[in-house]
Amino acid sequence: MTATPTTIGKYVLEKRLGGGHFGEVYLAHDRALACNKAIKLIPITNPTEIKQKLEEAQILDKCRHKHIVQINEANVFDNGGVHILVLDLEYLPEGSLEGELKNRWISIKEACTRMSCVLSGLYFAHTNGYLHRDVKPGNVLIAADSTKLSDFGLATTALSLVGSDQGYLAHCPPEFYTTGQTTVQTDIFASGLTLFRIINNINDWRGLLDNIDNFDRHICRGTLVKTIGYQDYVPEKVKRIINKACNPDPIKRYQTALEMKNALDALRFDIEWNKTSRNAWSGYAEGNTYEISIESKKGQHLVTFKRNGRKDNSKCHTCDNKVEARVQAEILISETSMK
17, 125, 156, 204: least CB-packed within 10 angstroms? Predict the structure, then answer.
C-alpha cells in the first residue's frame, strides 16, 4: 500500500489499530458525525478487484448481530490516483482478547462467557450461509460486558457448507490439510483452540509454537491441544468442551456453533478466581470473598486458602518446593471454580 493518508474523505486518521486481512485498521475521527470510528483501508490496485474487496463489507452487512462487529458503510475514495476501499466499522476501544491476554489474567468464567458470545455470533453467520475462517483471540473484540467477532476478511459463502482453501493456518483442523476445504467444522475447531488459548492465558502464542519441535506437524495432525496441555487450574468440565471442539475427527466435534455454546452455557460456576500476583489469587462467589496464597517459611512452602479472611485448614497444604505449591494452588482453583 502507498503512504497512508492522514485524512481520507470525512475521516481523520488518529492511529493505527492493527492489521486485518487485505488492509490496515485505524482509529479515525468522522468529521461529519463528530465521533470515532474504526476504519479498514483496503488498497484497490485494479478496478476489477472492487467487487471482490467489497465481499467483507457485504457479509458484515448481512450478518448484523449483537455479537458481530457492526459495519456502518463502505466507500471507495481516490487518494492521489490510488483507489482505497474504506470500511467504516464500529469502534470498540477496549480492543481484542489477544491484547487483554498480554495485559492481564482472564478468569475461567470470563473466558467461557466471552466465548459463548463469539459462538452466538458465529452461529448466526453460519445460519446465514457464511463461514468466518479466522476465529482467534485477535478477532474477538471486547464491548463493555459483551464480546464481538470481528474481521470477516477471510469469510466466504458457505454454499454447501464447504469453502475455499483459506483460513488462519495455526487454527485450521487436520482435514483442511488433506481436503483443502473449509466447513462449519473448521470454525468449530478454531473456536475450541481460541478458548484453549484464552482459558490457559497464553499471551505469546507465536513464541509458544516456536518452542514446540515440529509444531507444524502437530497443527496438521490436530494435536496441538494435547501437545501443549492445560494449566492445572482449568476444570475438567471445561477441558472436555475444548477437547471435543478440537477433536481431530470432525464427526466427533460439536456439529454446530450453537451446540458448543449450549455446552458452555450449561456450566455452573462457583468461585470466580483472578490472579493478583505470581503467588496469589483472589475470588468471589455469592457474597463471599476467597484468597489463595503461597508463602515460603523455613524451607517449606505453604498454600493457604481463606474464606472471608479466615483460614480453611481443610484446603491448606504444605509442600516441599515452589513448583509443587503452585500446582497445588492451581488444583484448588480447578476444584472450586465449578459447582
Answer: 204
